[in-house]
Every structure is written in structure tokens, then in C-alpha cells.
Amino acid sequence: MTNLVLVTGGTGYIGSHTVIDLLQHGYSVVSADNYSRSTAATLDRIEAVTGQRMINHAVDLTDLAATRELFARYPSLSGVIHFAAFKSVPESVADPLLYYRNNINSLNNVLACCAEFGVRDFVFSSSCSVYGNVEIMPVTEETPLPEAESPYAHTKQLGEAIIRAVAAARPQDRFILLRYFNPGGAHESGLNGEVPLGQPQNLIPNITRFGAGLQASLTVFGTDYPTRDGSCVRDYIHVMDIAHGHTLALQYLAQSRNSANCEVFNLGSGNGVTVLEAIHAFERASGLKLNVTYGPRRAGDVVAIYADNNKARNLLGWQATRDINTMMESAWEWEQRLAGKGMASRKAGT
Length: 350
Ligand SMILES: NC(=O)c1ccc[n+]([C@@H]2O[C@H](COP(=O)([O-])OP(=O)(O)OC[C@H]3O[C@@H](n4cnc5c(N)ncnc54)[C@H](O)[C@@H]3O)[C@@H](O)[C@H]2O)c1
Hints:
Elements: E1 4-8, H1 13-24, E2 28-32, H2 41-50, E3 55-57, H3 64-73, E4 77-82, H4 89-94, H5 96-117, E5 121-127, H6 151-169, E6 174-180, E7 182-184, H7 203-211, E8 219-221, E9 233-234, E10 236-238, H8 239-254, E11 262-267, E12 273-274, H9 275-286, E13 293-295, H10 310-316, H11 324-340, H12 342-347
Parallel strand pairs: 1-2, 1-4, 2-3, 4-5, 5-6, 6-11, 7-10, 8-13
Antiparallel strand pairs: 9-12
Helix pairs in contact: 1-2, 1-8, 3-5, 5-6, 7-9, 7-11, 9-11
């Protein structure tokens, strides 16, 4: 058994941080990313942190023949971590077929190749969006999944269902579904972070971009929710904590500590943080005072969601080790590095 892992989406935000963690824990990595939502500059950033140059194959994983060719080149893969997907909720609402085609076809192809080429261990990027507008907090892995709130969330629910069916048909193979809550922050070296192509949809890069003067306004949508301060509650989790969850998941499978051949884990901090608290954490980290705008509630926003992470803690030995302050400090350091490079290089993906 080798320790060579195929990471799909390895030049994206969570993928690149996971590659860093894997390399630093003795794994060898090859990536498959077609650069539809990232650029080759990520390879330089991974090298700057780890001293190792990752090979990325710019394969579109919706292309079965190209995906098969890739697997055939690496006959000794010990596992696959499948990040590659599109992730914007509004874009998925505007163009659902794009999301079903990209997210589902790529998953099907990667699963088919794992079966054909005998790759036994598979880790899938799922999302807390599968829980939708849930009322009982914190959410556990047993919380029933309601009808999806968006085509994006539906691709994650469908992805999980496809993997469960494949797992039932292939008892010799092992699958882990990781449901991430709200990833944020950047690598502590300041050398790698999120490079949103276009307007980011998540809160933290919106805050840091506003702080850096890269966007004209920052709107808090809804100040009358039944929460501590009236703004929505989310579970922000540092991207390096998420990244390490993947290393632990592969180790868990390699050591056959799993009790079923398809298991699901929440990766969240377990702490609900309001939008206003997140903004204040940024203000402390940056020393800036943000002049935010207050707007009405936004359709489709869940009031509050945070994880019960006991299963990941007890079985994977995983812990959220960095809080919202650390997240904001690293995100701000990264934003300043991006800003220092100027808008031109930012548009090119840095
Ligand atoms: N960032 C979040 O807030 C979040 C939350 C929960 C779950 N997730 C999931 O985690 C995964 C990674 O998210 P991220 O934030 O790193 O996103 P990202 O957009 O930074 O990375 C995804 C990568 O996949 C690549 N890709 C997309 N479609 C592809 C295809 N058909 N073939 C080859 N490469 C393809 C893109 O070029 C990109 O580099 C996704 O599956 C996402 O749905 C993300």
C-alpha cells in the first residue's frame, strides 16, 4: 500500500490547504483540477509553504475518458479526496444544470474510476448545506435531511446518496462523507489562502475585501433574527482544521478503524458565531472600524446553524483548534498580501 493520494480540486481553496496538511503528514499527492475556479498559481503557493511542487493534471472530471487516463497513469493510488465541484448557491439557482452536470458527473466518473482501478478509500466534500433550514441545534450526523434549499445543496445530498449506494454495492471499499460547516481563514504562514474569482459568496472574504477597500459596501442581511444580537448564527471553522480532518479521515480508513464502509462526519467548531460577532472579530484583528450597512433578511438564509462535532472528535480524533479570532487574523494577513499584489494579479488569480 502506497500513501499516494489523488486530490481532485487540489488547486482550490480547501483542496490546497488539505494538500499542504497531507504533504506535511507524509503523504504524496497528485491533483486533478481543470482550473475552472482556481489557477496554477496555487502550485507556487503550496511549494512556498511545503517546499514540494505538486503535480496537477488539468483534467475536466466530467470527461470520463480523460479521468480514466489519469487513473491509469497512477496505478498505485491509496485513496481519493474529492473536492472538485462548483460551490456558489446563487449561481446554482441561476444555472442549475451547470451544477448538476459538473458536480454529479464528476463524482460519478471519479467513483467509476475508483472501482475500475481498485482504489479503496474515498473521502467526499459534503456541506452543512445538506441540513437546510433545520430547527434543532446543534445538528448531528443523524439530523434528518429536508428538501434541499438550492440546487448546490441538492448536488451535495445527491452526492451523498450516490456514494451510499456505491458503498452498499462495494463492501470492500470505504467511504467518508465530511460535512463542512463555514470554512474561513488562511494558512498561518500567510502564504496560502482563498482567492475568490469574482464576488465571493461567503462572509469572511467579503469582510476582508471590504476592510482592504476592494468593495464599496458590506451589508449585514437581517438584524431582527431571534439570536443574541439579531444577526444570523453560523459555525465558522478554520480551513486548516478542515484540512487536517481529511488527513485524519485517510488515517482512520488506512487503520481500518471504521465501523461501516460509509460514514459521515460533521466538521464544525460546535460554536455558533453571529455575523456581527464575526465582524467585531475582524475589527479586533485588523484594528479597523467597519462602517457596515444593515439590510433586510435575505431569502433562503437559515437563522442559525452549528455543529455537534462529537463524532469527529471521538472517532477521528479531530478537534477545531483555531477560533474566529485566529481565523480573522489569518484571513486579514492573507487579504493584505493579495491587496499588496494589486488588482491585476488578483484578477489573474495571484
Ligand atoms: N468553501 C466552502 O464554503 C465550502 C463549504 C462546504 C463544502 N464545500 C465543498 O468543498 C469543496 C471544495 O470547496 P472550495 O471552497 O475549495 O472550492 P474551490 O472552488 O476553491 O475549489 C474547487 C476546485 O475544483 C475545481 N473543479 C471544479 N469542477 C471541476 C471539474 N469538473 N474538473 C476538475 N476540477 C474541477 C475548481 O477549478 C476548483 O479549483 C467543494 O466540493 C465544495 O462544494 C465548500
